[in-house]
């Protein structure tokens, strides 16, 4: 059965996502408004009965002085990735449309899980001197269908982007993430799943009088002050305050509880802050920030536990702590963040990663060279 692809309305896009248990926050219509340097378009796949069976948010980034675009579908599109005719039925109509829109290259991130490592498996890998990267360690489980998807993509001319960037973080969406499964678990069970250090730190924060509260848009500057301090400490380039203000406005205009802000306070000082995003049954710890001041009162553990408790109350099936490094060497400055996330008792997950389709090979190669220099 053939499928037809065409642009769809925002309400149709949102209705499709609302009917699914999970979809990435980077595939909701409002995400296009978070990225003002990109032009956004919602696409829909329709079967022969005119039923909407897949959607994708495409972000078009223009090339200066040329009417050409990089077309990007972060953590998408939302289609049947396991269809034996994946390329013919789903991807070829998309490429035809994107080529007509002036795209010289297409980048997408299939939301397909490849491997999972339990918290114990990650801890063992960190302790193993022979395991330099997470991918070197034996996984707890594999998804064999993911390898079939990868084969279909390669045969169709798609090129897998190798995990790049410092310490395994790619320039796009993370290939390795850490998630805590909530489905079918009580909050007490989730608390028992935390490691001993986490439980001790939560109790210590409570005794010290750390208060975790929900903030509003007026509290974003306080979050941002901690965020810039964190950026300097963890060696990344911070986004501007306007980015978070725009994110708050457009995401919560689409859904009143799409984005939350949490603040951990102690004796009037804001010690940690984080944003939380919700789409369906999937909740993300999105951006986190903290100060080195008063670290001994454990504000980060207290804040995360409050966010996890609230996510559970919302009916979350997954609490997603987002990207992790896959580099396990002691010299890696992000290893501490991985250890922190492992303490939640969740699991490390490897996705299929991002894939490119060069429509204009010359321009695609030029983009690769430009990104490598950056």
TrEMBL record:
GO terms for molecular function: aminoacyltransferase activity. The keyword Protease does not apply. Keywords: Acyltransferase, Cell shape, Cell wall biogenesis/degradation, Peptidoglycan synthesis, Transferase. InterPro entries: Acyl_CoA_acyltransferase, FEMABX, PG_Glycine_Bridge_Synth. Belongs to the FemABX family. GO terms for biological process: cell wall organization; peptidoglycan biosynthetic process; regulation of cell shape. Gene3D superfamilies: 3.40.630.30. The keyword Transmembrane does not apply. This is Peptidoglycan bridge formation glycyltransferase FemA/FemB family protein. Pfam families: FemAB. It comes from Streptomyces aquilus.
């Amino acid at each position: 059965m053939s499928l037809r692809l065409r642009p769809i309305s925002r309400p149709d896009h949102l209705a499709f996502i609302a009917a699914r248990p999970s979809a990435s926050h980077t595939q909701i219509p409002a995400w296009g408004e978070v990225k003002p340097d990109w032009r956004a378009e919602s696409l829909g796949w329709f079967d022969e009965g005119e039923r909407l069976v897949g959607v994708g948010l495409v972000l078009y980034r223009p090339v200066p002085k040329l009417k050409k675009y990089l077309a990007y579908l972060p953590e998408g599109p939302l289609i049947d990735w396991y269809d034996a005719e994946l390329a013919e039925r789903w991807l070829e109509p998309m490429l035809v449309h994107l080529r007509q829109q002036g795209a010289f290259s297409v980048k997408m991130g299939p939301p397909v899980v490849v491997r999972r490592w339990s918290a114990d498996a990650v801890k063992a890998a960190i302790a193993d001197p022979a395991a330099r990267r997470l991918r070197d360690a034996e996984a707890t489980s594999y998804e064999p269908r993911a390898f079939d998807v990868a084969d279909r993509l390669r045969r169709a001319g798609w090129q897998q982007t190798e995990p790049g960037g410092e310490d395994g973080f790619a320039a796009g969406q993370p290939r390795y993430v850490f998630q805590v499964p909530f489905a079918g678990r009580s909050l007490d069970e989730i608390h028992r799943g935390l490691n001993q250090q986490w439980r001790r730190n939560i109790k210590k924060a409570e005794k010290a009088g750390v208060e975790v509260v929900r903030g509003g848009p007026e509290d974003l500057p306080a979050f941002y002050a901690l965020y810039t301090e964190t950026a300097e400490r963890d060696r990344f380039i911070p986004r501007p305050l306007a980015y978070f203000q725009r994110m708050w406005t457009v995401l919560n205009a689409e859904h009143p509880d799409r984005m939350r802000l949490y603040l951990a306070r102690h004796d009037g000082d804001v010690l940690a802050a984080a944003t939380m995003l919700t789409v369906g049954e999937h909740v993300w710890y999105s951006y986190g920030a903290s100060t080195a001041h008063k670290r001994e009162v454990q504000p980060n553990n207290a804040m995360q536990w409050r966010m996890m408790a609230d996510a559970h109350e919302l009916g979350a099936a997954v609490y997603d702590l987002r990207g992790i490094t896959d580099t396990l060497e002691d010299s890696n400055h992000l290893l501490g963040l991985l250890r922190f996330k492992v303490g939640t008792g969740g699991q490390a997950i490897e996705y299929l990663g991002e894939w490119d389709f060069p429509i204009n090979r010359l321009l695609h190669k030029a983009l690769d060279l430009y990104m490598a220099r950056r």
